[in-house]
């Protein structure tokens, strides 16, 4: 017995030693990994610093240019909300964390706004309109002050200086950053693939930084990295601000969220961008899909807003549409793999969330099915419905809403930003728990909205299938791109009017014109003409929609009276052309 006990003790000692050795090796591996990561980061910054300091410009010539001519600025846009400015020798003090405009007798500042530059700002640094955390301005100094300042470091690259709005959220990454950056760069020929993106909002890289890297061959610079290059950094040529033309949604900072009042982008521009990004990520899109290969994609979430009966949902979709169903997850797959799956999918099904912005990679003819938790009205939260409805996106959209409270799981004890309400007064907690629908609200910390949107949901399969049967206008699936049908008519040509007096109280007015020049090159389903007739001196007019190129009016036409007449062409009921020059017709 004694010998057996010795052997057991010896085994325990050896096991203990082995565990200790393994633990020591693991600890050393972790430390080496951390050290390696730090070295890689330092090497990256060193490479960037070396790249910036390469002798691609004559330093003394650049310094002399700055001292003699100062900074030069020319902006486009009348208001700070639509302004992008081009600078020569805009500088940035990493000590003061301020941009600096150096004045000399040769400086240019257009527009020269004086103190209006601070009402409220020169421009918005992000594509989110008039947000007080996104304003850009600069300090002013005489160029002579350079002799008392740290030696400037000149950035030879053409730079685009901007703020990312929220780089942790995929919807914001695409809608507020990537699309506006892509089309801002497209507006200026020198903002090419060699341009340098400079992010000044102060965020770290974030989980989607690799997507920003696709827009330029140069590594983007973060605000925190600028101090590594010196105390005074001068951009030899830079553009500041972003075009807002590609944004379609406002987030509710001033009024409850919804589509922008004046949307300027179409699905054609969105699809051009998505094709560009897919190509950069080595994803082939646009290939034909055989009927037997059609499938549905379900976005799976693993942290919150779970679909509790996801397996049942997948089976029901497969049976209903006779298609394979696959799941994708941002937590488990690369973004390139997700794009690859979506680019050939017939349908995308997902709980409401930022991942639905990926629907811009779906092929034409596909459907987007957005699932909303209990108490959340789909009419009040519509960024993805708005995206799918843009002309040229050619996507179907169906919203499903959980109307059964017992099919939801809430998390009142979580942190406030994950839907928790335990931090609120007891009465407010009870009110939220009894509420049946989140009322319209402003962004961004409404506790009732967060409480409801972070629920887990058991999808009622029968009601979802009913919604799909009613909402889908055709069987979803990839379709060939059709030529754009949004071609507007030109002006009608050679408009003329003739008048005649039939009696003391009776007259006729004949108006004729030739077809718009571009119509002879188009196949248009329906062509109509709109004629406005207004008696001179009156505030009202009579509108007419006509199928022919001439018409004689007698009703309400008075003798010895002057009439103003406008004519324009209309394609397919909605595509309006410009009015021709006004005709002045005297009876």
Automatic annotation (TrEMBL):
So, what pathway does this thing act in?
Protein modification; protein glycosylation
- Which reaction equation describes what this protein catalyses? 3-O-(alpha-D-mannosyl)-L-threonyl-[protein] + UDP-N-acetyl-alpha-D-glucosamine = 3-O-(N-acetyl-beta-D-glucosaminyl-(1->4)-alpha-D-mannosyl)-L-threonyl-[protein] + UDP + H(+)
Q: How does it sit in the membrane?
A: Single-pass type II membrane protein
Q: Which GO terms describe its cellular component?
A: endoplasmic reticulum membrane
- What is its EC class? transferase
Instruction: List the GO molecular function terms.
Output: protein O-acetylglucosaminyltransferase activity
* Annotated ranges, domain Fibronectin type-III: 491-587
Write out the ranges of the annotated region (Disordered): 473-493
Q: Which PROSITE patterns match?
A: FN3
- For this UniProt record, give its keywords in alphabetical order, as a comma-separated list: Endoplasmic reticulum, Glycoprotein, Glycosyltransferase, Membrane, Signal-anchor, Transferase, Transmembrane, Transmembrane helix
Q: Which domain of life is it from?
A: Eukaryota
Reported function: O-linked mannose beta-1,4-N-acetylglucosaminyltransferase that transfers UDP-N-acetyl-D-glucosamine to the 4-position of the mannose to generate N-acetyl-D-glucosamine-beta-1,4-O-D-mannosylprotein. Involved in the biosynthesis of the phosphorylated O-mannosyl trisaccharide (N-acetylgalactosamine-beta-3-N-acetylglucosamine-beta-4-(phosphate-6-)mannose), a carbohydrate structure present in alpha-dystroglycan (DAG1), which is required for binding laminin G-like domain-containing extracellular proteins with high affinity.
Give the protein name, as stated in the record.
Protein O-linked-mannose beta-1,4-N-acetylglucosaminyltransferase 2
Source species: Conger conger (Conger eel)
Higher taxonomy = Eukaryota, Metazoa, Chordata, Craniata, Vertebrata
């Amino acid at each position: 017995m004694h010998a057996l006990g010795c052997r057991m003790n010896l085994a325990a000692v050896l096991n203990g030693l082995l565990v200790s050795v393994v633990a020591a090796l693991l600890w050393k591996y972790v430390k080496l990994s951390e050290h390696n990561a730090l070295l890689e980061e330092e090497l990256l910054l060193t490479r960037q610093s070396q790249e910036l300091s390469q002798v691609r410009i004559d330093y003394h010539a650049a310094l002399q240019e700055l001292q003699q001519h100062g900074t030069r600025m020319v902006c486009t846009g009348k208001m700070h909300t639509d302004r992008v400015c081009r600078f020569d020798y805009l500088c940035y003090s990493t000590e003061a964390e301020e941009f600096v405009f150096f004045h000399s007798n040769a400086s240019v500042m257009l527009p020269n706004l004086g103190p209006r530059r601070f009402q409220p700002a020169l421009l918005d640094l992000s594509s989110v309109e008039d947000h007080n955390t996104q304003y850009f301005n600069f300090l002013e100094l005489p160029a002579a002050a350079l002799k008392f300042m740290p030696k400037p470091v000149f950035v030879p690259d053409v730079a685009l200086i901007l703020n990312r709005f929220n780089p942790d959220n995929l919807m914001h990454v695409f809608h507020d950053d990537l699309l506006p950056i892509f089309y801002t760069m497209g507006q200026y020929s020198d903002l090419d693939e060699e341009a340098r993106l400079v992010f000044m909002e102060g965020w770290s890289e974030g989980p989607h930084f690799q997507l920003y890297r696709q827009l330029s061959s140069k590594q983007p610079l973060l605000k925190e990295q600028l101090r590594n290059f010196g105390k005074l950094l001068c951009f030899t040529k830079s553009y500041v601000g972003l075009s807002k033309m590609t944004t379609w949604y406002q987030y509710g900072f001033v009024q409850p969220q919804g589509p922008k009042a004046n949307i300027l982008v179409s699905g054609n521009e969105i699809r051009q961008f998505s094709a560009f990004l897919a190509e950069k990520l080595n994803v082939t899109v646009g290939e034909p899909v055989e009927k037997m290969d059609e499938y549905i994609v379900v976005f799976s979430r693993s942290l919150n807003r779970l679909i509790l009966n996801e397996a049942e949902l997948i089976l029901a979709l497969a049976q209903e549409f006779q298609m394979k169903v696959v799941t994708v997850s941002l937590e488990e797959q690369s973004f390139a793999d997700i794009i690859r799956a979506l680019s050939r999918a017939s349908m995308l099904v997902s709980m409401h969330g930022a991942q639905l912005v990926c629907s811009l990679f779906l092929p034409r003819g596909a459907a987007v099915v957005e699932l909303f938790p209990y108490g959340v009205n789909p009419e009040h939260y519509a960024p993805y419905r708005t995206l799918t409805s843009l002309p040229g996106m050619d996507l179907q959209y169906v919203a499903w809403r959980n109307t059964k409270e017992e099919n939801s799981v809430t998390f009142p004890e979580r942190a406030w930003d994950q839907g928790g309400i335990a931090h609120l007064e007891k009465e407010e907690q009870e009110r939220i728990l009894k509420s049946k629908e989140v009322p319209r609200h402003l962004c961004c910390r409404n506790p009732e909205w967060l409480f409801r949107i972070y629920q887990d949901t058991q999808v009622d399969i029968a009601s979802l299938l009913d919604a799909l049967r009613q909402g889908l206008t055709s069987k979803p699936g990839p379709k060939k791109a059709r030529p754009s049908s949004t071609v507007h008519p030109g002006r009608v040509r050679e408009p003329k009017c003739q008048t005649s007096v039939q009696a003391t109280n009776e007259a006729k007015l004949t108006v004729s014109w030739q077809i718009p020049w571009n119509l002879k090159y188009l196949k248009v389903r329906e062509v109509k003409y709109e004629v406005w007739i207004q008696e001179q001196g009156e505030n009202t007019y009579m509108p007419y929609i006509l199928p022919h190129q001439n018409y004689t009016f007698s009703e309400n036409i008075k003798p010895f009276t002057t009439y103003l007449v406008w004519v324009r062409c209309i394609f397919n009921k909605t595509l309006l052309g410009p009015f021709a020059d006004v005709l002045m017709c005297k009876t």
